Amino acid sequence: MGCRTRAAASGLLRVVAVEGIVVPDPRRRHPGRGAWLHPDLGCLRLAERRRAFPRALRSRVELDTAAVHAFLT
């Protein structure tokens, strides 16, 4: 999503929006619309800079990505 390069699903991290917060879903079990991201901080920062999360997760409000930052570090 952030770097916009294609990869196999096994190499990507699924994230979902839960009450205005983007949360990682490594087991791919959370319900709802998800977005896929390379599991590195560079890709996450690109997605944030491009404001890709609200668009990909179809949210009308800005989403907090602190949980994904914590997961990746």
What does this structure look like?
With 73 residues, this protein is of the alpha+beta class. It has one domain. The chain is built from 3 helices and 3 strands; from the N terminus they run βββααα. A 3-stranded antiparallel β-sheet has the order 2-1-3. β1 and β2 form a beta hairpin. 21% of the residues are buried.
What is the gist of this entry?
The chain has 73 residues and is an alpha+beta fold. The chain is built from 3 helices and 3 strands. The protein has a 3-stranded antiparallel beta sheet.
Record keyword descriptors for this entry:
alpha+beta; 3-stranded antiparallel sheet; 73 residues; 19% strand; 3 helices; 3 strands
Structural topology:
Layout: E1 13-18, E2 21-24, E3 34-37, H1 41-49, H2 52-56, H3 66-72
Antiparallel strand pairs: 1-2, 1-3
Can you list the strand order of the major beta sheet? Answer: 2-1-3
Radius of gyration using CA atoms only: 11 Å
| Overall tally of structural domains | 1
Largest β sheet strand count, sense and barrel closure: 3 strands, antiparallel
Secondary structure: number of strands = 3
Q: Report the β-strand fraction as a percent range.
A: 15-25%
* SS field, number of helical segments: 3
Helical content class: 25-40%
Kindly name the structural category. Answer: alpha+beta
Using the alpha-carbon principal axes, give the shape. Answer: globular
SSE series: EEEHHH
Distance between the termini: 19 Å
Overall average residue pLDDT: 93
Regions with pLDDT < 50 over 5+ consecutive residues?
none
